[in-house]
Amino acid sequence: MSKWKEFEQLVYQLQQQLSGDAEVVLDASLPGDDSKTDRQIDILVKRSIGQYPIVIAMECKDYKRPVDVKEVEAFATKLKDIKANKGAMVAGKGFSQAALETAKRHGIDMFRFVDTQSTNWKVYASIPASVEQIFFQAMQFHFSDFVEIPIVFINPPHEANIFSPEKELLGILKDIMIKKWINNEIPKTSGVHFVEIVTNGFVGTPEHLCSVTIRGLAHVERKVFFGPLPVDFVGLKNEHGGGVLTRSFTTEMLDTAQLTEGKLAGWSEIDPSQAAVQPLLTFVVERGPSLGSVQDQD
Question: In this structure, how many other beta carbons lie within 10 angstroms of the beta carbon of residue 103?
Answer without folding.
Answer: 25
